Amino acid sequence: MVSQLVVGVFLLCGTLFQPLQVAAFKPLFQGGSLTHREITELAILRKTAEVCRDIATAQGRDFTLPDFYSHSNWVELGSTAPFSTLIKPELPLNNTAGPSTPTCKSCTGSNCSDNILPEILLQKKLTSGYFSVISSTKPAGKCSHGGSADKTSSREPTGGINKDDIDSDHGFLHLRAAEMAINATVEVLQDIRLATGNQAFLRLVGLSQTSVLAFVIDTTSSMSDDIEEAKRVSFSIIDSRRGTPEEPTEYILVPFNDPEIQLYRDLAHVSGGQTIEVTKDTLSQATAVITDASTSALVTVLQVVRRPVIAENVSFVLDPSLSNVTVYITGESPVFTIYSPTGVSQSGSVSDGPLGSILTVGNLRRVKLYSGNQTGEWKISIVSTRSYSLKVTGRNATLFVSVTGGDSVTVTDVLLVEASGSAVVNGTIKSLGATDFLVNIDRIPEWAFVVQMKGVLNDLTRSLPSPFQRQSPTQQQGSRITITVQPSSTIEPGIPFIVNFTLVTNATGGSYTIRAWTDHGFIVSFPHFLDMGTGGSAQGSVTLTAPSDTESGTDVTLTIEAEDSETGDSNYMALRFIVMTKVTDFSSPVCQVVSIKADCPVECSRASWELCANLTDGNGSRAGSCGQGGKCGHMFCLCKEPFYNC
């Protein structure tokens, strides 16, 4: 939805250059009227406010600013605009009801439409409702929040004033309060926008993607003649991005003088990038490729690396939301042919064919597919005597896809695909609602992998759904180390507690560094190294000691980490414990009733009762008394006196 909104912005801005139309909002300033641009800006702010509210509601979190309009009497006072003082801390809050000023009367049955006192409304006094899930205590005459969870709403004055939903005590004002809350949030977002600027604001609310562009340049003496050309190309790329939506947030320069470039090949591949090897003469030709490949609006459809080499047919799916689809093939000797969904083919040796244009720069072939009907399953047949990589990208202007889904998207497959092989692990998808999906994976690939997602785009503008495919640009690597611990839940203050653990790996031998710590800084002792035996496992233990003065009920997390000293592979286990003081008193307390005075008619609220009792504990660790109250019932008050006598 957000990405579609961005497209709308650009389309509306485009109308600024069209002739004025009579039956439409005017595109240019019209003496106080709202223009296309202003309406679009307000729409973005308004929709962002709605999204913020919906996300907070879905995640069960408070969205403080809108809550003011639901929980206070600002709407009941007849206000038609947001209370701007809330977002301006330099302004005082005037005309609020004092601590002892009555603000409400009891509701008439379930009708709370007029429970705010007339003098409060007449004097425009600002107030809110008390709320507690534990106690019914509140100052005399004060309003309550209301609802079944609010204990204060059962005490005079009864009822509440919240407008959280249409069924609330003041639910008849829910829509007005929601409208006011959205407008107030728009004010906040507008202030942020004016303070940060348009580009920063769009990045803040996720309507503009950003990227970081790194230049890795060989600075060895043999490259001295080529460095100037590399600098020229780098400056050209930077200048072409300056002030545009494609301008990266950061540039990184990495000089190196290591003749082995394999490290940078691996780094580029793991991060979803590519390594283009060019000479000084062809460096300028790489500028266009670098510019295309580093565009922030790109999505990765497919990326694979083949090492060792195999001849195969690779398929990928293009959906209608993609444009500017580009295929990158890097390697010294790949021979390939591309096949469209309709069966049309083009050889990699044809620079301008029926499917696209092919540019060769150094070890890279860039295939830019022609625009048109690209929807469907494409295939690439590749034969190579050396290792190669294949990457398919496109611009996605109208579809935002993530594992958490979208209203117009049906996710059918989530796969873990080995980055340098063909092994695939299929996940089981469980829908958690209209927009969320839970994917269960029974195992993780042994080697580096990427996450690939397939599904169906339910586009209302098309008669039939369209398949789509996306892939994470970065690789993931599952750990080959497993830590298992015998579960235990409680520890005693001041008493050392031993946690035994087992370290297992499918690697052969090796030394592993062990680390252990707690989130409370408790004393821990453990072996700093473990040598893996031929069986692929080793035993260790961590001794954990909570200080003797640790409060009973304290929650503590112990983390045990193991790292392969050679490969850097690591894993950890987090254990949660409760510090509990040892219980020595197993005798139940004794309550002896001394006297009872009670008169409980049918209407209990008008009756009173009195109970006197002795409540004793055998060792005097806890005792208490029963008292009196204004309603029929029971009340217990605990104290630390060994004996209480009414």
TrEMBL record:
Hemicentin/VWA7 galactose-binding domain ranges (all copies): 299-395
Alphabetical list of Pfam families matching this protein: GBD_Hemicentin, Ig_VWA7, VWA7_N, VWA_4
Sequence ranges assigned to domain VWA7 N-terminal in this UniProt record: 64-202
Region (Disordered): 138-165
Localization: Secreted
Sequence ranges assigned to domain Hemicentin-1-like von Willebrand factor A in this UniProt record: 213-262
Residue span, VWA7 Ig-like domain: 481-580
UniProt keyword annotations, A-Z: Glycoprotein, Secreted, Signal
PANTHER family reported in the protein's UniProt record: NG37, VON WILLEBRAND FACTOR A DOMAIN-CONTAINING 10, TANDEM DUPLICATE 1-RELATED
Name this polypeptide is given: von Willebrand factor A domain-containing 7-like protein
